[in-house]
Design brief:
single chain; 93 residues; HU Protein, Chain A; 3 helices
Length: 93
Protein backbone atom coordinates (compact mmCIF):
# COMPACT_ATOMS: atom_id res chain seq x y z
CA UNK A 1 0.00 0.00 0.00
CA UNK A 2 1.34 3.39 -0.94
CA UNK A 3 0.82 6.63 0.96
CA UNK A 4 -1.78 7.82 -1.59
CA UNK A 5 -3.65 4.49 -1.30
CA UNK A 6 -3.67 4.86 2.49
CA UNK A 7 -5.07 8.38 2.19
CA UNK A 8 -7.73 7.17 -0.25
CA UNK A 9 -8.77 4.28 2.03
CA UNK A 10 -9.01 6.54 5.09
CA UNK A 11 -11.00 9.14 3.13
CA UNK A 12 -13.48 6.46 2.04
CA UNK A 13 -13.87 5.17 5.62
CA UNK A 14 -14.40 8.71 6.93
CA UNK A 15 -16.70 10.50 4.46
CA UNK A 16 -17.29 13.30 6.99
CA UNK A 17 -13.66 14.44 6.51
CA UNK A 18 -12.37 16.34 3.50
CA UNK A 19 -9.79 14.51 1.40
CA UNK A 20 -7.27 17.33 1.96
CA UNK A 21 -7.71 16.99 5.75
CA UNK A 22 -7.05 13.23 5.62
CA UNK A 23 -3.96 13.91 3.51
CA UNK A 24 -2.75 16.49 6.04
CA UNK A 25 -3.33 14.08 8.95
CA UNK A 26 -1.38 11.24 7.31
CA UNK A 27 1.47 13.57 6.32
CA UNK A 28 1.64 15.02 9.82
CA UNK A 29 1.86 11.57 11.42
CA UNK A 30 4.65 10.51 9.07
CA UNK A 31 6.48 13.83 9.53
CA UNK A 32 6.36 13.49 13.32
CA UNK A 33 7.67 9.91 13.21
CA UNK A 34 10.48 11.06 10.89
CA UNK A 35 11.34 14.04 13.11
CA UNK A 36 11.44 11.85 16.23
CA UNK A 37 13.77 9.37 14.55
CA UNK A 38 15.98 12.22 13.33
CA UNK A 39 16.30 13.35 16.97
CA UNK A 40 17.27 9.80 17.93
CA UNK A 41 14.02 9.10 19.76
CA UNK A 42 12.11 5.82 19.68
CA UNK A 43 8.51 5.79 18.38
CA UNK A 44 6.27 3.05 19.73
CA UNK A 45 2.78 2.37 18.41
CA UNK A 46 1.20 -0.20 20.75
CA UNK A 47 0.01 -3.28 18.92
CA UNK A 48 1.74 -2.20 15.72
CA UNK A 49 5.44 -1.91 16.44
CA UNK A 50 8.35 0.33 17.31
CA UNK A 51 10.57 2.50 15.14
CA UNK A 52 14.09 3.24 16.32
CA UNK A 53 17.48 4.25 14.98
CA UNK A 54 20.40 1.84 14.99
CA UNK A 55 24.04 2.77 14.58
CA UNK A 56 26.17 0.98 12.04
CA UNK A 57 29.87 1.36 12.69
CA UNK A 58 32.41 2.14 10.01
CA UNK A 59 33.74 -0.87 8.14
CA UNK A 60 35.73 -1.93 5.15
CA UNK A 61 33.55 -3.10 2.30
CA UNK A 62 34.27 -4.40 -1.20
CA UNK A 63 33.41 -2.91 -4.56
CA UNK A 64 31.55 -5.82 -6.23
CA UNK A 65 32.71 -4.81 -9.70
CA UNK A 66 36.45 -4.46 -9.02
CA UNK A 67 36.88 -6.27 -5.70
CA UNK A 68 38.75 -3.26 -4.32
CA UNK A 69 38.46 -2.40 -0.62
CA UNK A 70 36.19 0.56 0.10
CA UNK A 71 35.79 2.37 3.41
CA UNK A 72 32.13 2.57 4.41
CA UNK A 73 31.53 5.38 6.95
CA UNK A 74 29.60 5.08 10.22
CA UNK A 75 25.88 5.76 9.75
CA UNK A 76 22.48 5.70 11.43
CA UNK A 77 19.72 3.56 9.92
CA UNK A 78 16.00 3.39 10.74
CA UNK A 79 14.82 0.10 12.22
CA UNK A 80 11.30 -1.30 12.70
CA UNK A 81 10.35 -4.08 15.09
CA UNK A 82 6.81 -5.35 14.70
CA UNK A 83 4.57 -5.69 17.74
CA UNK A 84 3.09 -8.92 18.99
CA UNK A 85 -0.45 -8.06 17.85
CA UNK A 86 0.72 -7.21 14.32
CA UNK A 87 2.73 -10.45 14.04
CA UNK A 88 -0.27 -12.49 15.23
CA UNK A 89 -2.63 -10.84 12.73
CA UNK A 90 -0.22 -11.32 9.83
CA UNK A 91 0.29 -14.98 10.69
CA UNK A 92 -3.48 -15.69 10.81
CA UNK A 93 -3.80 -15.28 7.05
Amino acid sequence: MTKSELIQALAQENPHLYHRDVERIVSTVFDEITAALARGDRVELRGFGAFSVKDRSARTGRNPRTGAAVEVPRKHVPFFKSGKELRERVNQA
